[in-house]
Amino acid sequence: MATYFYTASSLDGYLATPDHSLEWLLRQDFDMDGPMAYPGFIEGIGALVMGSSTYLWLLEHQDTWEYTQPAWVFTHQDLATPEDADVRLVRGDVTRAFPQISASAGRDDVWVMGGGDLAGQFADADLLDEVWVQFAPVTLGTGRPLLPRELDLALVDVVRNRDFVCTRYRVARTG
């Protein structure tokens, strides 16, 4: 089992605009059957981890909850959960919740999706194994940062998927 931060970013290192918009990303040319694309990635995922901003964005932009995996939402809010969805609200430090998160994934992997700060918390706790970033051919100038902290990475793979440069890094362990 491994823990991945799989995301897309602008060339200048932003995941979303300041108001959480992804319109810039959705208008880019990307082959969903191509290398490092979402359909192949999600096949090996047993549990999802996200912050409340990502969770609320998903609820607002999806007609139905599309995930069958347990979804762990780190939040300080009392949030509604969709019917027939395995959404688990959690508060506190990622290290306390991680044993339950990894157990819920079974033999599959864990996907830290959405916010770079949450992925950074997993990295700070030595719980993040890889960072996969699909860099879109756009700059935003400001927004939600990819990883708002110092983190040492080793390049594992890089490929082109139409207009995107797709990268995969191993996280250097601090201990």
TrEMBL record:
It comes from the Bacteria. GO terms for biological process: riboflavin biosynthetic process. It holds the Pfam family RibD_C. Residues 69-153 form the Bacterial bifunctional deaminase-reductase C-terminal domain. GO terms for molecular function: 5-amino-6-(5-phosphoribosylamino)uracil reductase activity. InterPro entries: DHFR-like_dom_sf (IPR024072), RibDG_C (IPR002734), Riboflavin_Biosynth_HTPR (IPR050765). This is Deaminase. It comes from Acidipropionibacterium jensenii.
